[in-house]
Design goal:
By secondary structure, this protein is mainly alpha-helical. It has one domain. The protein has 15 helices and 10 strands. Strands 1-2 form a two-stranded antiparallel sheet. A two-stranded antiparallel sheet has the order 3-8. Strands 4-7 form a two-stranded antiparallel sheet. A hairpin with a 5-residue loop joins strand 1 and strand 2. Helix 2 runs antiparallel to helix 3. The longest helix is centred in the N-terminal third of the chain and has 50 residues.
Length: 461
């Protein structure tokens, strides 16, 4: 096979490789969120239960711990597949930048093993360890879950803003400094954004399960606590996430102006650039969108007349697919704003009346908030990853240069689709069986909400 054949095979493989990676990452990221946030919620609930001598709280924590174990196992499978895919699908990236890019994944491996060990101790320690020892055993599990997320996100942040090395005249990496590479300009904004996103996804999704149960008439205290605890966490971090989103937008504007231009569908470099909601990009412009005059310049430069670079500044073959990036970004912002409104309603009602809103519409909103949070997370990662295209290492290496030329990548994609379908079905089946086995409330939980008490008062008894 000569060089031209290799190039042709690589170009043909780009689509299936990207589809397989998108599916794997999109599936795994959801389970990663639960791996980060679910342990914190579970241990907090257990701690409150022991402190108050509350059997309902400790029982709820025990149920959550078992669900956490199932989700951790599913996430471990998808994470293992991803580790193989990095080498199989993108050998060009690993061959050229492996000593830098691979370093945080090595550290993530250590974090994963520590987390797995203490997940096992925590799950099998119920009723075998003292309450204090049992809760202390969860602290390394919580810390290592967050550390694993940190290391993975630093690798992605490096792809967006590669630092910590030099290239020689032949384009080979020299003077590699893996530690420095982990702390580029995008690292902290992306890490904080991801951690807060994990708390939002886990909090809203867990609360949505109990909201559905309450809409079906299950108004026992277990359901009120199951909704209130995770919803409070998610509602508390949502306003902070909006602020961090502004931080990321400013980082992107400074380091990846082509991505920002695609996010806003801005073709012409503009002073006093508008912020456009919705719309479709074609004929070198965004059409049918709702424009907010000078808002983009104000957000990016804190100056309504600030200059924002447009897509015209970049060669056509170095621009990301605008409609995908713009619509994904709008989806993320729109859903995030809706979740912020839900958090405001909860906070305002609790401040005024010390209870959650009584209207069924509030429960309906909570019931769909989990799906909304997941979609917002996925849309955010689409914006990040597709917005970097055509680069796998921004400004240095194109995605097409990194893909494997090996034949048959479509077969691998189909195999991964089947694996994830089976894994999803099995995970849902196990969780539903667990939910059904825990549906019958304990005697002290029945009629836990007297007619003259508000749901919030019942939850805090």
């Amino acid at each position: 096979m000569d060089a031209w054949d290799v190039v042709a095979d690589a170009a043909e493989n780009l689509y299936p490789a990207r589809m397989q990676m998108a599916l794997s990452l999109g599936w795994h990221i959801i389970f990663s969120c639960f791996g980060i946030a679910f342990p914190l919620l579970t241990v907090f609930t257990e701690w409150r239960g022991h402190r108050r001598g509350d059997a309902v709280l400790t029982g709820l924590a025990h149920t959550w711990a078992k669900a956490m174990g199932v989700l951790f196992a599913a996430g471990a499978v998808s994470g293992t597949l991803l580790s193989f895919e990095m080498g199989i699908l993108w050998p060009g990236l690993m061959d050229r930048f492996g000593e830098i890019y691979g370093f945080p994944f090595v550290l993530e491996g250590f974090a994963f093993f520590i987390e797995a060990i203490f997940v096992g101790i925590y799950l099998f320690g119920w009723n075998r360890l003292s309450p204090r020892a049992h809760m202390l055993s969860a602290l390394p599990m919580i810390a290592s879950g967050m550390a694993g997320a940190f290391f993975v996100v630093t690798a992605n942040a490096w792809m967006n803003n590669p630092t910590g090395f030099r290239l020689d005249g032949d384009g080979r990496v020299i003077d590699a400094r893996p530690w420095a590479a982990m702390f580029g300009p995008s690292t902290w904004p992306q890490v904080v954004h991801m951690l807060l996103g994990a708390y939002m996804v886990a909090g809203f999704t867990i609360a949505s399960v109990y909201a559905v149960g309450m809409l079906r008439g299950r108004r026992d205290r277990r359901h009120h606590l199951g909704l209130l605890i995770p919803l409070t966490l998610a509602a508390a971090v949502t306003p902070v996430q909006i602020v961090v989103g502004d931080w990321i937008a400013n980082t992107v504007a400074e380091n990846q102006p082509a991505k920002l231009a695609a996010m806003e569908g801005l073709y012409r470099t503009t002073a006093g650039a508008p912020l456009t909601v919705g719309g479709l990009y074609y004929d070198e412009g965004l059409h049918y969108g709702l424009e907010i005059p000078k808002a983009l310049s104000l957000l990016i430069h804190h100056d309504p007349n600030g200059v924002v670079q447009g897509l015209e500044e970049f060669p056509a073959d170095e621009r990301p697919p605008v409609n995908v990036v713009h619509l994904a970004f709008d989806t993320m912002v729109g859903l995030g704003s809706a979740l912020l409104l839900l958090a405001v309603v909860l906070g305002f009602t609790w401040w005024r009346r010390r209870r959650i809103p009584r209207t069924p519409w509030f429960l309906r909103a909570v019931a769909v908030s989990g799906v909304a949070a997941v979609l917002a997370l996925e849309a955010g990662w689409v914006t990040t990853e597709v917005g970097r295209q055509p680069w796998i290492v921004y400004g240095i290496m194109r995605t097409a240069e990194a893909v494997s030329p090996a034949p048959g990548l479509f077969l691998g994609f189909y195999a991964v689709v089947v694996i994830y379908l089976l894994l999803t079905a099995l995970t849902v089946f196990v969780l539903r069986r667990m939910a059904r086995s825990g549906d019958t409330p304990a005697p002290q939980e029945v009629d836990a909400e007297p007619p003259d008490r508000s749901p919030g008062e019942v939850a805090l008894r």
